[in-house]
Amino acid sequence: MSGKHPIPVAGLLLGGTSRRMGNPKHELQLPDGRLLLEHMLDLCDAIAGRTLLCGDGVPGFDRNAVPDRIQGAGPLAGIEAVLREAGSGRCLVVPCDMPALEVEDLSKLATTEGDIVLFEDPPGSPLQGLPMLINANQLGDLEQFMDAGGRAIHRFIEDRAHVRVPISSQERLLNVNTPEEWAAYLESC
User: Fold this and answer.
1) Nearest-10 crossing angle of helices 103-110, 36-47
2) Per-domain residue ranges for the chain?
3) Does the predicted TM-score (pTM) go above 0.90?
């Protein structure tokens, strides 16, 4: 299977408690009737030989769920779980709440060389860490960072060599966190 896919393992971050959204984001329904989770899995499956669910498993989805080593540590805990499960090689890490993302975007990450690859941010905006491609050789550094209390992806990335690639449209990196953002996304479809 790995010959067909540029990346051996992808991790889909299911997110935390979805307090702002009110419901799990991955259960949101797209205009085509699919769940957001199904869309995000399709994207990951197109790029990776195996897709893991990071966080609690989802009933009805036959996927490996990898638990966080440190509960409540946010997205970094999911990234750490993916790297640990993969053991080696470059891994794709994608949040579950980016409905405008497309396979070509993730392909751009997957085909760019580097141990940490992420998209360019608009001028003046803070560093966005997801989606990202990260080599499992970063696991030791990530564990040390987290064990020292680090929880922010951008703080982990900023002091490490990383490659930033352009994206055709910043709108594709829309991250849905509130019912209002979801409604605006659906209206734009």
Assistant:
1) 40
2) 7-188
3) yes
Asked whether residue 3 carries a pLDDT value surpassing 60, the answer given is: no
Report the 10 Å Cβ neighbour count for 19: 7
Q: Which amino acid is at 105?
A: D
Residue 71 tokens read as 């509960």
Which residues have CB under 8 Å from 117's CB, separation 6+? 109, 132, 133, 134, 162, 163, 164, 165
Tokens 């609690």 appear where? 56
For 54, the enclosing helix (H) or strand (E) is: strand 48-54
Q: What local confidence, expressed as pLDDT, does residue 117 receive? A: 97
Answer with the residue of higher pLDDT: 59 or 12. 12
Q: What does each C-alpha distance from 51 to 20, 80, 94, 128, 188 come to in angstroms?
A: 26, 15, 10, 22, 29
Query: What is the spatial distance between Cα 93 and Cα 125, in angstroms, rounded to a whole number?
Result: 21
**What residue has token string 């195996």?**
50
Share above pLDDT 70 across residues of the chain, in percent, rounded to a whole number: 92
Mean pLDDT computed over 103-116 = 96
- Among 164, 181, 176, 177, residue whose Cα is nearest residue 123: 164
Q: Which fold has domain 7-188?
A: Spore Coat Polysaccharide Biosynthesis Protein SpsA; Chain A (3.90.550)
Share in percent of the chain as helix, strand, coil (round to 5): 35, 20, 45
